[in-house]
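Late entry, evening session. Most of the bench is empty. Finally got around to the prediction I had been postponing all week. Sequence below, unchanged from the version circulated by S.P.
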Amino acid sequence: KPKAPAIGDAALPSANRTVATEPALEKLTSDVEPNPALYQMTVAEAITNGRPSVVVFSTPGFCQTAVCTPVLESVKTVYTQQSDRANFIHIEVYKQFNPELILADEMVAWGFTSEPWTYVLDTTGRVAARLGGPVSPRELTAALEPLLAGGK
């Protein structure tokens, strides 16, 4: 069994940093073109509001795999199509960039040893999909659609 939540597990009710706790987006993400909407809600809030959620853990500016930016772009694309029906959250892998990289508390709490990871949570906060590495908008939409159609 993986350390990180698996399909069917409850998502961790993380109190990840948001613009409410850190208004400067450049401190919340290494994305050079961040979408502020992805930094509005904690996972703890998302799993209790009755909507499915997409939670992506990636570090576009410091990625070791060269797929973090494309994964985040996939999430942004699906956000533009489904933002009125689901929650979308980006959690940066690092909580500090300067003078050194310091791993975000959520990376440790969720049990990740690599990145990027994209999770799709059902309306009750359980993991419906767990996608490691590259994710296209089509793949993410396919994981999210059943939940939007009335599935948990």
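Two things to note before I forget:
Residues 68-82 form the longest helix (15 residues).
The chain is about 25% helix and 20% strand.
Will write this up properly tomorrow.
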